[in-house]
Amino acid sequence: MDFSAHILAAKTALHLSAVPEAILCRSEQIDRIIKFSKDCLLERRPGSLYVCGCPGTGKSLAMEKLKGLLSQWAVEAGVLPPDVASINCTTLTDATQIYSRIYHSLQPGADDDRSVGYQQLKKLLSFNRGAKKMQLLIIDEMDYLITREQTVLYELFQLSVLKDSSCILIGIANAIDLTERFLPRLRTFSCNPDVITFPAYTKDQIFAVLLQRLSSLSVATFHPAALELCARRVSAASGDMRKALYACRTALDLFEAENKSKSTEPEATCLQRDQFVQVDHMARALAKVFRSPVIETIQALPKHSQMVLCSAVSLFRKRKRDAPLGELNKQYLGFCKTTGMRPVSSQEFSGICQLIADQGLLGLSTAREDRLRKTKLQVDHDDVVFALQGVRFFRNSLL
């Protein structure tokens, strides 16, 4: 394998979207989630579970694993597999939209424009009203449903205790005390969920996960000391595995640029010292991750400016060269439609792009017509992803 191909393989292995066969250091939490779900299916009884923990601790990854394992187990056990509705609440513009989103996920043939309320959803989830299978509702970023009276959250958890209900509810959020702080009456309603907490990753756990990610590569890429430094720094700061993966990809970028400038030799398959990502590469990468002016600038931008940058990332993933401003605007309008945000006018959009360009984040040429001006992303795609991945609104759009 040549040098570029090997670096690409390493970056792919370290990407957030790469789901490992086995999820290390989370077996206790995953086993409890699976046991809860299996028990509900076997006994055909409803139930609720609240999964919590800081960002980057493996909650969403565990849910992806659950969906695959549960379907496979149901077939082997001779149990009807559940219908699954998996909703990320960051895509909702109003908390009450959750009812329609769940309904249409479970009834894909229904009219998508039809608004559905709590009573209609409750009817759908009742065995007495026609439900034949258990219904697994996975509600990610549940704290987005917090309102003054918490009516929506209370009603969702009540779905799991109603007579003849087929609902298995798994709510996910970062806050460990969400149910106690915002939903104190759950116990009164007899629908207090079981709680499973995902702790921050320790140094040893981060190191183990990084080794697992890199184990599929035919050639060693990182010096062990570099991985140890990454694990130590990230665990001390937050225990967020996403930051560890980002730091490793950044270190790979530095390593790749350095080797290309040193030599024209395309092969990098022998285990020599200068063919490892070294501690100095990782130290520079970590400095970029935790103290990056670019990332800080992106994080400080107004929301629509961040949306334009997100749109640019999506656009330039598909094409390496520049693109007309009109095409970027089209991408932005699509993003607004997907997220339910009201777009700014064409004139305001041009002004936003100019402001982003003035900050060095976007290249913007001159032309007789605004829509024909050439645009080009002036920062690394990963910088935008890392800067905004902690903002719930953008997370799904950046994957």
Automatic annotation (TrEMBL):
- Natural source organism: Selaginella moellendorffii
Which residues are in the AAA+ ATPase domain? 45-194
Q: Which Pfam families match?
A: AAA_22, Cdc6-ORC-like_ATPase_lid, WHD_Cdc6
Q: In the record, what terms sit under GO molecular function?
A: ATP hydrolysis activity; DNA replication origin binding
- Asked if the Swiss-Prot or TrEMBL record annotates the protein with the keyword Transcription regulation, the reply is no
Keywords of the record: Cell cycle, Cell division, DNA replication, Nucleus
Query: Where is this gene product found?
Result: Nucleus
Instruction: Name the GO terms of the biological process aspect.
Output: cell division; DNA replication initiation; mitotic DNA replication checkpoint signaling
Q: Where is the Cdc6 C-terminal domain?
A: 309-388
SUPFAM superfamilies the UniProt entry points to: P-loop containing nucleoside triphosphate hydrolases (SSF52540), Winged helix' DNA-binding domain (SSF46785)
- From what superkingdom does this record's organism come? Eukaryota
UniProt name for this protein: Cell division control protein
Q: Which CDD domains match?
A: AAA (cd00009), Cdc6_C (cd08768)
* UniProt cross-references to PANTHER family, sorted A to Z: CELL DIVISION CONTROL PROTEIN 6 HOMOLOG, CELL DIVISION CONTROL PROTEIN 6-RELATED
Q: Does the keyword Nucleotide-binding apply?
A: no
Q: What's this protein's family per the entry?
A: Belongs to the CDC6/cdc18 family.
- Where is it found, in Gene Ontology cellular component terms? nucleus
